[in-house]
Design goal:
Elements (H helix, E strand, L loop, with lengths): L1 H13 L3 H4 L6 H8 L2 H9 L5 H6 L2 H13 L42 H21 L3 H30 L6 H19 L7 H24 L1 H27 L10 H6 L8 H27 L15
Helix pairs in contact: 4-6, 7-11, 8-9, 8-10, 8-11, 10-11, 11-13
Bound molecules: fe (ii) ion (FE2) (2 copies).
The site of one fe (ii) ion has 7 residues, from helix 8, helix 9 and helix 13.
């Protein structure tokens, strides 16, 4: 479960001793509950002499873990949901949640207009057919592996724009942030799917190989021509929309079981408590349509002779 994965991140922040305090913890909320009474004491202790009486009252493991936290002035945040229940996710916070724009047109397509567009379009088509042949209608597996690829372009583009901003001593128009937001959103799609299906060893090996090749290929293509790279991503996102439409069709006609939505998806997209996989795929498809529009727009800006920084980035969707 993601909760457990998230819980395991806490010790990285607070020191390995925290693991000793949570030997039976199965979720991040358990760890947060354990730490809640300790947090105020931590802050006091950091700015005053050690209280030996207090130390004697507490288990040795707690003392060790709180010393680390106290020293660096970092304490775990205590967050609650709107209904007052504890916030259980460390990988994202309540203010990062959002409602997907379901009114977005999922049928939009950028018709290739020039040689560059045709290169981008046929590159994606060439990648699409072997992928479809490999996965066929194994939607869950397809979606999971697709997301490991989909999260690459935003990170590469965002990283390169970040460095460009530093190198040129100029603003980026918010595009580095917008692209990094996209990468994080894609990663959250993946975190959602792994709640429903776990990759087999050969799928993990495939992801490793594909990431090695795709990251480098996209990095070089973005260095050579950002407008081509964004066009390629625009077409990749169009295909992502199409594959989620096929997923939805099979959920609707009963070929794929419409299971209960994972808790992480309900919190991330602010879905109703009784949401199902169909709702999750619907919001993910809306996200992909948004990425499609952002990347085609980014390519258009540059094709028209402008720089990305000249047009304010579409920030704030995710
Ligand atoms: Fe995605
Ligand atoms: Fe996407």
């Amino acid at each position: 479960m993601s909760g457990t994965r998230a819980a395991l991140k806490l010790p990285r922040l607070l020191g390995n001793n925290l693991l000793l305090n949570s030997t039976s913890a199965n979720s991040s909320s358990k760890i947060l509950t354990d730490l809640r009474p300790a947090a105020p004491w931590l802050r006091n202790w950091s700015s005053s002499a050690p209280d030996t009486t207090a130390k004697q009252d507490k288990p040795a493991e707690t003392q060790a873990s709180t010393v680390v936290s106290s020293y660096w002035g970092i304490a775990p945040t205590q967050l609650t949901k709107a209904d007052g229940s504890p916030w259980k996710w460390n990988c994202f916070r309540p203010w990062e949640t959002y409602e997907a724009d379901l009114s977005i047109d999922v049928t939009k397509h950028h018709k290739p207009e020039n040689f560059r567009d045709r290169v981008a379009y046929w590159t994606v088509q060439a990648l699409k057919y072997p992928t479809q042949l490999f996965f066929q209608r194994r939607h869950m597996c397809h979606a999971m592996l697709l997301e490991t690829v989909a999260a690459v372009p935003g990170m590469v583009g965002g990283m390169l724009l970040h460095f460009k901003s530093l190198r040129r001593f100029e603003h980026s128009g918010g595009w580095n942030k917008a692209l990094l937001e996209e990468a994080e959103n894609e990663r959250m799609h993946l975190m959602t799917f792994i709640e429903l299906s776990q990759p087999k060893w050969y799928e993990r090996a495939l992801v490793l190989a594909v990431q090695g090749v795709f990251f480098n290929a996209y990095f070089l293509s973005y260095l050579a021509s950002p407008k081509l790279a964004h066009r390629i991503t625009g077409y990749l996102e169009e295909e992502a929309v199409n594959s989620y439409t096929e997923f939805l069709k099979d959920l609707e006609n009963g070929k794929f079981e419409n299971v209960t939505a994972p808790a992480i998806a309900i919190d991330y997209w602010r879905l109703p408590a009784d949401a199902t996989l169909r709702d999750v795929v619907t919001v993910i498809r809306a996200d992909e349509a948004h990425h499609r529009d952002v990347n085609h727009y980014a390519s258009d800006i540059q094709c028209q002779g402008n720089e990305l920084k000249d047009a304010p980035a579409p920030l704030g969707y995710h």
